[in-house]
């Protein structure tokens, strides 16, 4: 099986580790490098994986996954390049860092060393993620296929050109947070209407799960599914009118625009 080193055992690193193990990836083929000792202990205890230094983890790995913050990429890369990277053994770097272009990695690596940039999202923790892949200059079809095969174990995989990854980050990388925010607001609103928090939470969670499943399985668009809930002159129409009056659609345009701009900015400042 492919040996994977995860550099950075934070929130997305943990989601990847948990998702891979859950999908049957062997624990002996996973190794984690986490610079916080306390966090490394937590990861080792929770998942039974080996935790070690960046150099040791990278040395034995086929795929080196960088799951550190964009500002920490450079330091982590410096540690990785202290070992002898082996392009012939088809070693590969996969970067999950938002905004950081593959062109920032490539000059620091041995000539022709392949890099694949990926924007995942946290639902991969439960096998329902979406990972969007973009090959760097030296990543060939077989590298993309390897990354696809690893990440398809924890959700769907989409391939785009790298220049679309900032937009992707705004939509699906940050996306779970928007749905969680909507869930929080709906639960609070339900409590405001007199439901207990437990009942309001159960109703909101199942409504989200059910609506997501319909979107996934139905041939109808989001608009058509919404029309089917909206009886003329009824309760949904009254609610949607308020959401539109408060500018919910414009808020999403602006919010995703801000995320896109921030992703571009993080790529510039990561240098
Ligand atoms: N959290 C999310 O939903 C998503 C995050 N990402 C990207 O994933 C990356 C990590 O994000 P999070 O997991 O949220 O951050 P985080 O802060 O939770 O985790 C980063 C971890 O890396 C460790 N670290 C930093 N430098 C290190 C080094 N040199 N060696 C070993 N460990 C090191 C830190 O101690 C920390 O535990 C970021 O670049 C982010 O843009 C991408 C998609 C979604
Ligand atoms: O908020 C962030 O910067 C990261 C990237 C996408 C989701 N979380």
Please write the CATH class name of the largest domain. Alpha Beta
What count of structural domains? 2
Instruction: Determine the CATH topology of the largest domain.
Output: Rossmann fold
- Residues in β-strands, percent: 5-15%
Unreliable segments of 5+ consecutive residues: none
Radius of gyration: 21 Å
The quaternary structure here is single chain
User: How many strands, which pairing sense, and closed or not: the largest β-sheet?
Assistant: 8 strands, mixed
Mean pLDDT: 94
Number of strands: 8
- Please report the distance between the alpha carbons of the first and last residues: 34 Å
CATH superfamily grouping of the largest domain: NAD(P)-binding Rossmann-like Domain
CATH architecture name of the largest domain: 3-Layer(aba) Sandwich
Which ligands appear in the coordinates? 1,4-dihydronicotinamide adenine dinucleotide, (2S)-3,4-dihydro-2H-pyrrole-2-carboxylic acid
Give the helix/strand class: alpha/beta
**Outline:** elongated
Q: Assign a percent range to the helix content.
A: 40-55%
Helix-strand pattern, N to C?
EHEHEHEHEEEHEHHHHHH
Pathway: Amino-acid biosynthesis; L-proline biosynthesis; L-proline from L-glutamate 5-semialdehyde: step 1/1
Domain Pyrroline-5-carboxylate reductase catalytic N-terminal: 3-99
InterPro entries: 6-PGluconate_DH-like_C_sf, NAD(P)-bd_dom_sf, P5C_Rdtase_cat_N, P5CR-like_CS, P5CR_dimer, Pyrroline-COOH_reductase
Function: Catalyzes the reduction of 1-pyrroline-5-carboxylate (PCA) to L-proline.
